[in-house]
Design a protein that fits this description.
Number of strands: 14
Order of helices and strands: HEEEEEEEHEEEEEEEH
Structural class: alpha+beta
Radius of gyration: 19 Å
Helix content: 10-25%
Number of helices: 3
Low-confidence stretches: 1-7
Number of domains: 2
Strand content: over 45%
CATH architecture of the largest domain: Beta Barrel
Largest sheet: 6 strands, antiparallel, barrel
Strand order of the largest sheet: 2-3-4-7-6-5
Oligomer: single chain
CATH topology of the largest domain: Thrombin, subunit H
Length: 202
């Protein structure tokens, strides 16, 4: 079971603006979320002892609420680790949320994209979309087909296919029909988390 849990892809949230786990009338900031469980911040170590059964609801920024039930596994590093007991329902809900998980790159850590021989800076990715920084003289058109190559931090390159969904003065949003694997999105997230941790250590 432990090996299976470790294989689950996790969404890791920054402490500035995380979704919350509501237990009773109290909201707890979520640190990590996966198909198998949730990790939420709690500074009282003995408030949720191991093997305690919990029921509550995960509340996302867009107002979507997912009821969950789970069992406390342990308390670690200021947080409570919970394994879902209704995993089938939670896994389906997690996969639905994962489709809309977007990774925004901090300035200076963006990856590159090349389309039609022109390089672009990618500022956000998800499984179903890419946002690039718009060049001043670009003549993008809504609905225009895009076949491009994205270059990630692990030096891999991925061919994407999609179309222009919308534009602003500074950004172009691409909706992908042949998109980015979830594993690639989360590998990029882990890279940014490691980079952030390393910077704080120095």
């Amino acid at each position: 079971m432990a090996d299976e849990r470790r294989q689950h892809t996790r969404l890791s949230y920054s402490p500035e603006n995380p979704p919350v786990l509501r237990i009773g009338t109290v909201n707890y900031a979520i640190r990590d979320l996966s198909e198998g469980g949730v990790v939420f911040v709690c500074y009282r170590q003995n408030q949720f002892p191991a093997n305690t059964l919990l029921s509550g609801a995960i509340i996302f920024h867009d107002g979507v609420t997912i009821p969950v039930e789970g069992r406390v596994l342990r308390y670690h590093d200021g947080a409570v680790v919970v394994a879902f007991t209704q995993e089938a329902q939670s896994a389906a809900a997690f996969r639905e949320r994962r489709r809309f998980f977007r990774l925004r790159y901090p300035r200076g850590e963006e990856v590159g994209m090349k389309w039609g021989g022109t390089p672009y800076i990618v500022i956000e990715i998800s499984e179903e979309g890419v946002v690039v920084r718009r060049h001043v003289m670009d003549a993008w058109k809504v609905g225009e087909e895009v076949r491009a190559e994205v270059f990630f931090h692990d030096r891999t390159a991925l061919q994407i296919v999609g179309s222009v969904l919308r534009m602003t003065d500074s950004e172009v949003v691409l909706q992908l029909s042949s998109g980015i694997p979830a594993r690639t999105v989360f590998d990029e997230q882990r890279y940014l988390i490691r980079k952030s941790v390393d910077l704080r250590r120095h």
